[in-house]
Fold this sequence. Notes:
- Helices cover about 70% and strands about 0% of the residues.
- It contains seven helices and no strands.
- The protein is globular and about 55 Å long.
- Keywords: Coiled coil.
Amino acid sequence: MSSEQERIDALEARVVELEDRLHTLALSVHYREDEPYFAEISRLMLSSADRVVLNLVLSGILERASGSAALRRPSPERLSHPALDETYVDAPIDHREAVRLVALVVGGEEAARRLLEAHRRQGLGEAGHQALGPLPA
């Protein structure tokens, strides 16, 4: 592949990434506070791939917390992320561990706390959030 073609491919990839970010920003304006979870995801400016991983991590956390289902990790060949490896294990989980796992996706514990709280406030995964217990200070 020529260097010119490589530059074109890199620019096309960057355009796709910027379009995704613009879409995320538009969602942030749309959701505001009436849908706190979606607003928080939008504020974090997560890429579409990171949003997929985040949703799988949250599902795994809440399933582990509620003990409602046997966890089955998504195929590593199709989707690879350290947070998935650590989420989909057969072990108890508490709120501190949930924050740590979400932080692997969103980039920090404060953002992870905000996101988990917004998820709970929106009424998503109520049984799992109750099983996790209160958010640590």
